[in-house]
């Protein structure tokens, strides 16, 4: 039963993880690609769409919440097969040898992926090297071993489900000894301290508890208060129009208030016909548009829809010679510290009428922590691509 749960759950984790990587548009620009030399492993990458607007919020929220929820199942599965890891002889046939080799990668890879994922979500990443390539390559190693193991064990698993009447056995309080001759059985076992039903209740209860104390950070709104184990759980950090969740503050990013003042700040827009420099006052003279969009982060948290108002990216492209279909854009920030100080957006993201260089949120000027004097907001994009403290936009081939 534990294996079948993991079969479905880990497959969903793998797919949503790859989808998340594609959402970064790593083939668009090297500044977006935090996993260099991915080679053939990037075969599936595709242009990330802009709709529905909650797409990344859903896929990454599912990835993080499901990963945390499956931790008790993974640990129980490993606990249940610990004796098999030490059976002798180590290989009795070619198929058995392949299974044993896959187990090394399966157990090690599983622990590595879940550990690095949880540490990244908890904002306490301690592994040497960047999380992105380690988690990406580790996922391929782990899932390859997972597939090999699943193929080898599927006949046994399905036979057990059919022959042992799983529902009746789960309801039973009796201990059922292993039936295979190859299984390890203690010659004089102590009385069992817990039935299998009790063990399953413990695992299921643990998973349910983790789910209920995590999922709120992805749902947003009042549900955030239930996300007790999530670093961005609890109430929104402040009140008012700007009182919704942030990831990095202006202080952390090294933003100097003198650079963002009305007198000093200018937006530099470059394209086919040259360069235009715009003050915030001049941006406010351009046609302003509004979009209701959330922010969703790779760490699994997201906000409710916020009401953004600003200049459409496609209109800024038109200022520098792109009156028709706008091209890709390279966005640069005043940010000095942290990842994604620069990012690239695809042409379909620029062309979407909901994609803005936002100047206001919920009827008020952006706060310094939300990117004053201007930030990018794009539907369905990962939060790090919604660049804050924007200083320059370069339209054209990247």
| Major sheet summary line | 5 strands, mixed
- Low-confidence segments, given as residue ranges, are none
**Could you say which overall geometry the principal axes of the C-alpha atoms support?**
elongated
Please report the distance between the alpha carbons of the first and last residues.
50 Å
Radius of gyration: 25 Å
Q: What is the residue-averaged pLDDT?
A: 89
- Strand percent estimate: 5-15%
Strand order of the largest sheet: 2-1-10-5-6
Structural classification:
alpha+beta
| Series of H and E elements | HHHHHHHHHEEHEEHEEHEEEE
Percent of residues in helices: 25-40%
Counted by DSSP, the helix tally is 12
SS elements, strand count: 10
Please give the domain count. 2
Write structural notes for this entry.
GO terms for molecular function: oxidoreductase activity. The chain has 398 residues and is α+β, with helices and mostly antiparallel strands. Helix content is 39%, strand content 12%. The chain is elongated, with a radius of gyration of 25 Å.
Q: What is the topology?
A:
Elements (H helix, E strand, L loop, with lengths): L1 H22 L31 H15 L1 H10 L13 H28 L9 H33 L2 H6 L24 H17 L3 H4 L30 H4 L13 E5 L2 E5 L1 H5 L4 E5 L12 E7 H7 L9 E5 L8 E4 L1 H5 L4 E6 L2 E2 L9 E3 L12 E6 L3
Parallel strand pairs: 1-10
Antiparallel strand pairs: 1-2, 3-4, 4-7, 5-6, 5-10, 7-8, 7-9
Helix pairs in contact: 1-2, 1-3, 1-5, 2-7, 3-7, 4-5
């Amino acid at each position: 039963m534990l294996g079948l749960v993991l079969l479905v759950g880990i497959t969903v984790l793998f797919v949503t993880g790859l989808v998340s990587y594609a959402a970064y548009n790593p083939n668009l620009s090297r500044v977006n690609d935090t996993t260099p030399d991915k080679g053939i492993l990037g075969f599936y990458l595709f242009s990330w769409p802009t709709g529905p607007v909650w797409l990344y919020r859903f896929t990454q929220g599912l990835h993080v919440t499901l990963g945390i929820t499956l931790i008790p199942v993974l640990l129980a599965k490993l606990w249940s097969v610990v004796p098999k890891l030490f059976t002798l002889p180590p290989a009795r046939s070619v198929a058995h040898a392949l299974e044993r080799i896959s187990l090394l990668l399966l157990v090690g890879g599983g622990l590595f992926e879940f550990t690095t994922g949880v540490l990244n979500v908890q904002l306490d990443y301690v592994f040497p090297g960047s999380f992105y390539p380690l988690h990406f390559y580790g996922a391929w190693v782990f899932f390859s071993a997972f597939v090999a193991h699943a193929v080898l064990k599927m006949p046994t698993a399905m036979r057990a489900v059919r022959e042992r009447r799983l529902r009746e056995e789960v309801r039973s309080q009796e201990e059922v000894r292993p039936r295979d001759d190859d299984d390890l059985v203690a010659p004089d076992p102590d009385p069992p301290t817990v039935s299998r039903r009790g063990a399953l209740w413990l695992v299921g209860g643990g998973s349910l508890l983790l789910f209920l104390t995590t999922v709120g950070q992805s749902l947003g709104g009042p549900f955030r208060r239930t996300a007790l184990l999530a670093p961005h759980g609890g109430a929104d950090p402040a009140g008012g129009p700007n009182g919704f969740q942030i990831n990095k503050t202006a202080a952390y990013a090294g933003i100097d208030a003198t650079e963002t003042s009305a007198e000093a700040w200018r937006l530099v827009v470059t394209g086919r016909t040259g360069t235009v420099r715009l003050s915030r006052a001049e941006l406010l003279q351009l046609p302003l548009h509004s979009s209701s969009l959330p922010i969703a982060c790779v760490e699994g948290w997201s906000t409710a829809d916020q009401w953004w108002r600003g200049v459409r990216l496609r209109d800024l492209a038109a200022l520098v010679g792109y009156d028709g279909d706008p091209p890709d854009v390279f966005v640069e920030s005043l940010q000095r510290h942290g990842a994604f100080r620069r990012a690239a957006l695809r042409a379909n993201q620029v062309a979407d009428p909901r994609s803005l260089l936002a100047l206001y949120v919920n009827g008020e000027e952006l706060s310094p922590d939300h990117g004053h004097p201007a930030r990018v907001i794009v539907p369905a994009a990962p939060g790090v691509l919604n660049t804050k403290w924007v200083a320059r936009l370069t339209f054209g081939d990247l």
